Amino acid sequence: MRLRISEAKGSVLEICWFDLLDSTQKRLVEDIKSKRVQPPVAYCTTKQEAGIGSRGNSWIGQEGNLFFSFALSMRDLPKDLPLQSAALYFMFLLKEVLAKKGSKIWLKWPNDLYIDHKKCGGCITQKVSETLVCGIGLNTHEAPQNFAVLDIAIDHQELLEEYFALLSSKIQWKQIFSKYKIEFHKSKAFTTHIGNRVVGLEEASLAEDGALIVRGERIYTPR
After folding, report:
1. 218 in a domain, yes or no?
2. Which end of the chain is more exposed for a tag (fewer CB within 10 A), N or C?
């Protein structure tokens, strides 16, 4: 089933729904490379068998949850968006949409959505020529052990339409970053992986481009 919604300035983002995919990210990247589809486009499913997580890990795809990847031309991104912080930007916008619906979800640096102290969603980005592909998994129905389920009931199609409408407005990075800085303190009780290192966030601060600063070292996420 395919749905279409209008974006800003007359462009159209096509939302393609699939009954089953191995990975929305993998399939969309393959189709972008082979030119079967062009940005802006999104692939979505509620059943994913081989999702891609951060650091090369798999994302456990419980059936009924929301898995989607979208591709945007680099020229359609906010002009001031640091590419290395694109995942943070995309996930903060999703958090904003969910928060307006009543969720207590929050964003842990750099790209993980949490309910209380458990992960509820994640994101990975990949640049393909002049296209940026972002894949997101969100536990809306059920979650594996030690993970969280979204704390509100949502309609997947409605959520995506609202999310992509917000994304199409091209809110400047500096506006998103100014909001995220206020919430960053929530991340300080956690750690993050940088390559093979586990880095504590209790003493961390943020640079204006979204990088993490720990004891004078500037750290960018590879995601």
Report:
1. no
2. N
- In angstroms, the CA 166 to CA 153 distance is 20
Is 187 among the domain residues?
no
Q: What is the pLDDT along the chain (223 residues), one digit of tens a residue?
A: 555 554 444 446 889 999 999 999 999 999 999 999 999 999 999 998 765 555 455 555 678 999 999 999 999 999 999 999 999 999 999 999 999 999 999 999 999 999 999 999 999 999 999 999 999 999 999 998 999 999 999 999 999 999 999 999 999 999 999 999 999 999 999 988 777 788 889 989 999 999 999 888 898 875 5
pTM (predicted TM-score): 0.90
In a domain, 213, yes or no: no
Calculate helix-pair angle for 86-100, 156-168, nearest 10 degrees: 130
Total domain count, the chain: 1
Give the domain range for residue 68. Answer: 2-172
Question: Cα–Cα distance between 96 and 180 in angstroms, integer?
Answer: 10
Non-local (6+) Cβ contacts of 152 within 8 A are: 98, 101, 102, 103
Q: 3-state SS of 77-121?
A: CCCCCCHHHHHHHHHHHHHHHHHHCCCCCEEECCCEEEECCEEEE
Q: Residue 18 is inside which H or E element, if any?
A: strand 12-18
